[in-house]
Structure formats: structure tokens, C-alpha cells
Amino acid sequence: MQRFHDLLSEGVRRFLADKGVTDVRPIIQYTRPDFEGDLTVVVFPLAKALRQRPDAVGAVLGEWLVQTVPAVERYEVVKGFVNISFSAEAWRRFLLEALPAAGFFPRAERAERIVIEYSSPNTNKPQHLGHIRNNLLGWSVAAILQRYGHEVYKVNLINDRGIHIAQSMVAWMQFGGGATPESTGKKGDHFVGDYYVRFAKAHKQQQAEGGSEETPIMQAARAVLRRWEAGDLHIRPVWLKMNSWVLDGFAETYGRMGVDFDKTYFESETYLVGKQHVMEGLRQGLFHRKEDGSIWADLTAEGLDQKLLLRSDGTTVYITQDIGTAALRYFDFQMDRSIYVVGDEQQYHFKVLKALLQKMGAPYADAVHHLSYGMVDLPTGKMKSREGTVVDADELMDEMVAQARRLSEELGKVDALSAEERERLYHIIGMGALKYHILRNDPQRRILFDPAESIDFFGVTGPFIQYAHARIHSILRKASGAARPETAAGYAPDGAEVALIRQLYRLYDVFANAVENLSPAPLAQYAYQLAHQFNAYYHDHPVLKAESEPVLHFRLLLLERVAEALRESMGLLGIEMPERM
RNA sequence: GGUCCCGUAGCUCAGCCGGAUAGAGCAUCGGCCUUCUAAGCCGACGGCCGCAGGUUCGAAUCCUGCCGGGACCGCCA
Fold this sequence. Notes:
Layout: H1 4-18, E1 28-30, E2 39-42, H2 44-50, H3 54-68, E3 72-78, E4 81-86, H4 88-98, E5 113-117, H5 129-147, E6 151-158, H6 163-175, H7 181-184, H8 188-210, H9 216-229, H10 235-257, E7 263-266, H11 267-283, E8 288-289, E9 295-298, E10 306-310, H12 318-333, E11 337-343, H13 347-359, E12 368-373, E13 376-378, E14 381-382, H14 393-411, H15 419-439, E15 447-448, H16 462-478, H17 495-517, H18 521-540, H19 549-571
Parallel strand pairs: 5-6, 5-11, 6-7, 11-12, 13-15
Antiparallel strand pairs: 1-2, 2-4, 3-4, 8-9, 9-10, 13-14
The structure holds one RNA strand.
């Protein structure tokens, strides 16, 4: 079934062609709610081309559309706008025939291979709220692109080497006394993170005592790093062991969060590849070496600065590793597009990375796309792990689930469920609240998170939408059997019902917007609007006690589709939809 | 010095690839549970869309300048 937009657009084109105008693109938009109509044709551009008054053109155009487009029932001209109403029958048919199969989502004309990197944690500390935003955003954008028909690969790049890793190692070796996550009952990433904080404290204290930046413990950390790079047989096992503790912890966190990866890269395996590429670039004369032995790229011609690629001692820097990772990734996936979900503080870094890859003539250079998002701020400012001013990811998830439990028990609606089912439900609701809160806003905006004000469960929230879904399922459960569309054949939907179908129809555009902007936010906004509209409908349209069989079955079908649209849009945010709550 | 992001109701945000009288939630005030789940519904209050120019039939939306907030330009990652 053709989309209403296309029907109108073609009608307007034919109207114009009839008058010898072919170079004007019809502007079709949704009619504002306070006017009667479904879609609106903006006639100003047409009036200009035809050199007539807008309202005059509008009237003729409206008449033309009613005559030539069967689904168009009425029109109304308001100033320079022609508001078109499609027949209730056309909308009913759309509900029956087009939804859900082709109606909800557009598909990519050409499937791309897309690699999306997100999360990219360091193995020296547990994840915090900032990681939550990254993880949820990355996972969701991947889901959206995949739904669009692209071939999407989710990858994680674990930062498992470097001075900060050496720091937790030193602290553990000096202060740990052989303790392990098992012996202390601590989750591995938190266990290691404690030593990272321990290091920072000891360093600070030694600084105060010694009166200098340089401290014994910092020297020890650098020594560990050097020994690690040399493959020292005493250091490597410690490194392996501590990393595995952290990775076990991460696996648990990812599992709860519901995010996953198709492949995991480790920086320890990619940094040398980057170094090789830099050396190769040096041979080709793309880069230059300074007297001290350090290697640089001159990007001033590209409007950027001089960029260090290898330190004077031959060790790699951040950008070197990313060069290596990009190469490996292309080897693995031959992607058309490579999306990096990384905070906006690194915009410059990715500009440089892209420019470098282009300079090196890498076939994957142009594919680099930095999906930059805003940081999560606390009322006290930016989160810093070292200073302990973070909202811990695991604790926050615990808190959200606990709050869902508290509220549910208070309301007492799910007492009939088994203890196991209830816990599962609390998880779904708590995570729903968290995910929605994080994903509902434009990714590039900063989010202010106030731990004192907990994330809400009322209003524009995940649970609000989940609740609407549960209400629908409550009705569907009580109805004996599924909706029988054929029984509904004779029914003409009323205004509220047409409005609801129109909202379902709109998901197509909302989704297209999400794809184009690599943003889950439009879907989140949409799901709320649909849920809200359903709630209002629910308020004054009885379903199970509908006045006749056709009405009953029409409404059942409508609600099935609403529930499905809610599930689809929220599913792309990684939010599960309970059937009761 | 340069680059990027943000500025819309008391607060948190939609709308921004130009269209009609700028929308939600929270907060405040008021109404609705003997009828399919009140995590709900309905209403009231609340706006120089940061400021000034420009483009246009039409600007919150595009352009320029300014003001305010933030980020980045490291032999940290």
C-alpha cells in the first residue's frame, strides 16, 4: 500500500504538470492538531510558480486532489495551506493491510556494512554513568541501523594497557597482600578500581611528603609499564589476572544492561599495528622525525596542528593505537562506514584520526564517523573516577531496580506473579526508567544528572510507556482470542481512532529521522506521544464492552498495533515491554 | 589565537534539513477511581524562543555579528 504522503505528492505533481510546472517540489506535512485534516499541502511555493494567490490555488488544488486521489475525502483551505482529510475507510485499510509489515519502517535501498564501536572502557576501574550513556547509545544506534537493513557489527575496544593500568597493578602488588575478588567477595572491576584509587591516594601523599611531582610509586608504575612492554614474565601474569577480573565484572555489567558485542578488540593487540603503520608512513615521507627521535605528522595544511605519533622513546600514543585498530577493523570487516561512539571532548581527536588516515591513503579513511555525544554532568561538575566523584553504573542499576520494586509493591498490582517473575519485572521497569532517561534526549546535548533527585517513574518516562503497553495486554488477555480483522470490516473509525492510526503511520518518518541522525531520541519521544494518546483513548473508548462485534474487533486490532509500535520503538532503545505491571 | 557544542515556561527538555496561534513532563492549583490497570485521564497557571541585524510571502528554525555557558587543540587515554 502506498504511503499517504506519496499519494498526495504525486497528486500535486500531476496538478502542477497539468499547468506546465515541473520544477516545484510539493511540501507535505502533518496537519497541525488544531485544524481538521490529516496531511497539509503548503501552497505558497505553488502559488509563486503559478503566479496566483495562494488561497485561490489552494481551492483548485484541493478540488483536484479530491477528484483524482481516491483516498482523499475532503479538503479545507486555510490561508496558504490545503488541509487534506483521507477517508476513514482509507485509514482503516491502512491499519488492516499496511501495518505492521511494511507500514512501520522504511528500509535502506542499499545495505551498508557498518562497524560501530562503543563502550571502549579502561580495565582499571568499574564503569560509571558516562559509560552507561555510551553503552546505551551505541547499542541503540546499532539496533536502529540494523533494523533499517544495514549489516551492523558491534565492536568494543578494551583499553587494557598504559600507565593507568600499570598504576592499579602497582597498588595491588604493594598493598593487596594477595587479595582477590574471590577472597574479598568483590566484583572484579570494583576490586581493581579500588587499587586505582589507592594508587592515586598514595601518589598524592608521597607528593606531599616529598614535595615534588615525582614520587616513588609513580616511578614504580612507569617501571611496570616498561617491563610490560618488554614482555616481562613476572609482570605479564599479574596484568592478565587483573584484566580478567575486570573483564568478568564488565561482562556482568553489560549483561544486566542488555548490551553486547560481535567482537572485542584489545588495545594491547592493536597498538603495535599502529606503530607499524606510522613507521610505514615515515618511510613514505608522509611524516617526519624530530631530532629527539619523536615522529610527527604535519596537518597544518588540513587546518589542524602538528600531531605526535610516536614518542621519542618509541612508545605509542593514543592516536597511534587508533590507527592500528582502524586497520585491523577494516581487515576484519571491510566496512563502508565505521562509527565511533565517543564523547564530544574527543572531536578534535577524531578529526585528526580521519585526516591522518586520509593522508596515509587508507581505503577506510572516509568511512570514519565520530558519533559524538555530550557528557553526563553532576551538579558538582564533571565525573572523575580518580577523585571518586562518579555515579557508579552497577550501583545506579541496583538503585533503579530497587525503586521499581518499592513502587510496584506499594501499588500492589503484581502480587499474583511468582517471586521470580516479579524480580524479572522490577528489572525491566527499573532499567526501562534508566534507559529512557538517558536516551530520550538528543545525544549531542549534555545531560545533567542529580543523584539527589532520583530518576522518575511518572510522566515522560520509560515506565509510563511500559504501563500503557501493560494496559493494552491486560485487555488483549481478557478478550477471548485474537482480533478478527474481517469482523471489523464494516466499521468506520471515529476521530480519535483515525488520530491513533495516523500516529502509527507516523512511526515511519520518526524512524527515518532516527536513522538519518543516528539518534534514538526521536523514537523515545514518539513512544511517549503514542502511549499518551493511547491512554487518552483508553479513557473514553471501551473495548471489551464495545457496542458491537465489529467495534470490538476493530479496537482489539488497533490496540494490538499500538502495542506493537510501542514495543518496536522502545525495543530499539533496548527497553523491554512487560505485559503486566 | 583556532575549532566544536549548547542557550526555548520556575526546573528538565521536544520542535531546528524555513510554514499556520511555539509543545511536553516536573513543580503549583483544581477536577476524575461502583465500568477494560489512577505508574493513568482532563483542566488552569506559566514564553522579548539569549541579544541585534540580514535573507524570505513566511524565521525558534537559515546567514552574520555580539553576549552567556561548556568542551577541545598534551611525549595523558
